[in-house]
Design brief:
323 residues, alpha/beta, TIM Barrel, eight-stranded parallel sheet, two-stranded antiparallel sheet, 12 strands, 16% strand, globular, TatD-like, Metal_Hydrolase
């Protein structure tokens, strides 16, 4: 008598996996410092562990200038295979080029050498955060931003890394400069924390760029319509912590039905180990961004997470097989 076949194994529930492409872990708040005052114990290790526990297995720490890029690299060395970094100077910090004691070219050379060395070590996966920000010209004039965005694009060509890009109220100039370098940037890159219009998104996608979405990308009904139309093979997710959290006043709140927070939040003055700090976004909350994005797009969480995972590991070469 034939031995009966065993019943098929029950399907395991889907476990989402995430990559936070933009997290500012060098910000002092992750060391418990707020405006120069120590409010609670440093809890960076807990922030990283919470991310992993939530399925956010890889974090790309943003480099906003040379010093912050160097700090980000220290974190990448401390958490190999989990933390990666970008290297570059943010448009709002571009006055540093004009103020550098040995001149702008030395600062540019240092960025280039740091990017090349850390790329070889597997830590740096993108050049940035670079771009233009005309909303905050008080921090850096337009002419300086334009000059050093162009200069950093020249470096990006030489270091052969994808770009981590910033654009605010500067779309025409931003796209024009990128277009000049397009043929020499085969790895393209991502315009992160995107809050632009539908037409701007479509321009960028048509030119080959990907779009990074966080809580600030989901504030208004118009934002949600843009996110709905981003081609899924150009979509990436981020928190941009400690900023850009999803708030109850945002249009995105209407898509939180069924969402379970699953974490305790406390004010920084009442900090306890293991709790999230109110007003301080962190990488474990990228899953909330994914939840809203899936709801807005009318797609399953699994479809969104798996496509975005594949997009991200392929662009940044994160040592995982993309789908």
């Amino acid at each position: 008598m034939a031995t009966p076949s065993p019943p098929p194994a029950a399907a395991q529930p889907y476990q989402p996996r995430y990559i936070d492409i933009g997290i500012n872990l060098t910000d002092p708040v992750y060391s418990g410092l707020y405006h120069g005052t120590q409010r609670h114990a440093a809890d960076l290790a807990s922030v990283v562990q919470r991310a992993k526990d939530a399925g956010c297995m890889k974090l790309i720490v943003t480099g906003s200038d040379l010093a912050e890029s160097e700090k980000a690299l220290e974190l990448a060395e401390q958490y190999p295979g989990t933390i990666y970094t970008t290297i570059g100077v943010h448009p709002c910090s571009s006055l540093q080029f004009t103020q550098h004691e040995a001149g702008a070219q030395e600062l540019l050379d240092k960025l280039k050498h740091l990017a090349l060395a850390s790329r070889a070590e597997g830590h740096c996966v993108a050049f940035g955060e670079i771009g233009l920000d005309y909303d905050r010209l008080a921090l850096c004039p337009k002419d300086v931003q334009l000059r050093y965005f162009a200069a950093q694009l020249d470096i990006a060509v030489q270091v052969n890394l994808p770009l981590f890009l910033h654009s605010r109220a500067a779309h025409a100039d931003f796209l024009a400069l990128l277009s000049k370098h397009a043929d020499n940037l085969p790895k393209k890159g991502v315009v992160h924390s995107f809050t632009g219009t539908m037409a701007e998104m479509q321009d960028l996608v048509a030119a080959g760029w990907s779009i990074g979405v966080n809580g600030c990308s989901l504030k208004t009904a118009e934002n949600l319509e843009v996110v709905k139309q981003i081609p899924i093979d150009r979509l990436m997710l981020e928190t941009d912590g400690p900023w850009c959290e999803i708030r109850p006043s945002h249009a995105s709140a209407a898509h939180l039905g069924g969402w379970e927070e699953g974490r305790k939040w406390v004010k920084k003055e009442k900090f306890v180990e293991g709790a999230l700090v109110k007003g301080r976004n962190e990488s474990c909350m990228v899953r909330k961004v994914a939840w809203v994005v899936a709801g807005v797009r009318g797609e399953s969480l699994e479809v969104v997470c798996e496509k975005v995972w594949g997009n991200t590991v392929r662009m940044f070469g994160l040592g995982e097989e993309g789908n």
